[in-house]
């Protein structure tokens, strides 16, 4: 194998703007028969050395163009600074058109697991190139750069672009998926509803930004807690986007419930189907206990459940089964109060959209539990009336009796 040694220059932080475009382009093949190419700046120490050879095929690296002007390297990072003519690459001819995916809270715990699954192709498929638009808070911008560096070092062929920024009006431009994770998590002894005040503002602002700049058919998955009411705030601030496109993540509850039922029934969890989570991302499940054990809220299993939730929308639902997702109640067949985001059983043909499953039967016990969840969400809705355009907020969340044994 032909080898060469390249000394790599030390580079300073390239992310100098609120939204930096990192255009990750085609693969650099590491093989023996091609001429050596000077690599873009690497984030390594000044004395590090690399032995490699780089095939260039017919691709001429060019500077990234933005609004007609050639960008300077300080706006991007390493390999993201170059873009390549992909027409020469046989593999990419079978690929779908690239999609733009926004992830907020991209420097947080959940995103740290999720982003690498998205970039690997295991969520949207092995023929679906993606651009990641990463939104962080001002305080997390350095960490966001670190995330971009790790994505760069992972050499994902399907990851074509990475943007980072703190302004949702820039980061959400033309996005087809928005995964809204960025928000404060609760700590030990807190209820999710206590986050209403802190997190509600974030989702009002991000709803407005999506409304203004995202793709008109963007699919929005709200993860930040309390996710049902945050999703309601978000959709109310985005009147140009179909309300049906907004989801609150209740898939973690579904996965937890499947696990618990399997345990009880003495079967492996793949034997459990047709699980419905009704209502809100539940405070009656294991989130609090996990916070007590971990000292922080669930992250890896949440990322997995986000993957499951997206896959349920982009692949056909297996015959006879359904999945749960928090959706806008608008003419629902179960008599649940309208104008809420409420988790219900759904099916999808795999086109990103869904239909409600309309014939699930309730017994009195279930009806009673659903009513309780409905009452909780109606109370939360009153608390955020100032953020949904419904007048003056009135907050009376009542006594909380949902802590699990062992919670403090
Ligand atoms: N629905 C669910 O099933 C579920 C499960 C677990 C956690 N959660 C919720 O998800 C949220 C995130 O959890 P985490 O563990 O990743 O938290 P984290 O604290 O690790 O990360 C949150 C990140 O969001 C950033 N952020 C804060 N405000 C922002 C804003 N306005 N715009 C963009 N980014 C912003 C923070 O800087 C931080 O980097 C929490 O609200 C948590 O309660 C929901
Ligand atoms: O419980 C929490 O606050 C975190 C998350 O929503 C969870 O269910 O694990």
Automatic annotation (TrEMBL):
Residues 100-247 form the Lactate/malate dehydrogenase N-terminal domain. GO terms for biological process: malate metabolic process. One of its GO terms (molecular function) is oxidoreductase activity, acting on the CH-OH group of donors, NAD or NADP as acceptor. Signal peptide: none annotated. The keyword Cell division does not apply. Belongs to the LDH/MDH superfamily. MDH type 2 family. This is Malate dehydrogenase [NADP], chloroplastic. It comes from Brassica carinata. The lineage of its organism: Eukaryota, Viridiplantae, Streptophyta, Embryophyta, Tracheophyta.
């Amino acid at each position: 194998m032909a080898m060469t040694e390249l000394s790599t220059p030390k580079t300073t932080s390239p992310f100098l703007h609120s939204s930096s475009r990192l255009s990750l382009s085609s693969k650099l093949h590491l093989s023996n028969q091609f001429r050596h190419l000077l690599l873009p700046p690497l984030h390594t120490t000044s004395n590090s050395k690399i032995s490699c050879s780089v095939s260039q095929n017919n691709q001429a690296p060019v500077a990234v163009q933005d609004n007609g002007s050639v960008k300077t390297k300080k706006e991007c990072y390493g390999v993201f600074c170059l873009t390549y003519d992909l027409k020469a690459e046989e593999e990419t001819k079978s690929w779908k058109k690239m999609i733009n995916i926004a992830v907020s809270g991209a420097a947080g715990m959940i995103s740290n697991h999720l982003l690498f699954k998205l970039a690997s192709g295991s969520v949207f498929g092995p023929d679906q190139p993606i651009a990641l638009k990463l939104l962080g808070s001002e305080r997390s911008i350095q960490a966001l750069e670190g995330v971009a560096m790790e994505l760069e070092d992972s050499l994902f062929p399907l990851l074509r672009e990475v943007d980072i920024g703190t302004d949702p009006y820039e980061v959400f431009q033309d996005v087809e998926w928005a995964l809204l994770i960025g928000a404060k998590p609760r700590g030990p002894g807190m209820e999710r509803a206590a986050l209403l005040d802190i997190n509600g503002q974030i989702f009002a602002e991000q709803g407005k930004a999506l409304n203004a700049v995202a793709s008109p058919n963007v699919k929005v998955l709200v993860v930040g807690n309390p996710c049902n009411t945050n999703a309601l705030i978000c959709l109310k601030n985005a009147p140009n986007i179909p309300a049906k496109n907004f989801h609150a993540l209740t898939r973690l509850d579904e996965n937890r419930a499947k696990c618990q039922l399997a345990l009880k029934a003495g079967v492996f969890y793949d034997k459990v189907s047709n699980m419905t989570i009704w209502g809100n991302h539940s405070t009656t499940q294991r989130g609090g206990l996990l916070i007590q054990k971990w000292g922080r809220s669930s992250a890896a299993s949440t990322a997995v459940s986000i993957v499951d939730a997206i896959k349920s929308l982009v692949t056909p639902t297996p015959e006879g089964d359904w999945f749960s997702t928090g959706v806008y109640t608008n003419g629902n067949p179960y008599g649940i109060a309208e104008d809420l985001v409420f988790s219900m059983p759904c099916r999808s043909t795999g086109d990103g959209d869904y239909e409600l499953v309309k014939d699930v039967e309730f017994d009195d016990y279930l009806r009673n539990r659903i009513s309780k969840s409905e009452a909780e969400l109606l109370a939360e809705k009153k608390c955020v009336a100032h953020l949904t355009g419904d007048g003056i907020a009135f907050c009376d969340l009542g006594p909380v009796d949902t802590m699990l044994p062992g919670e403090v």
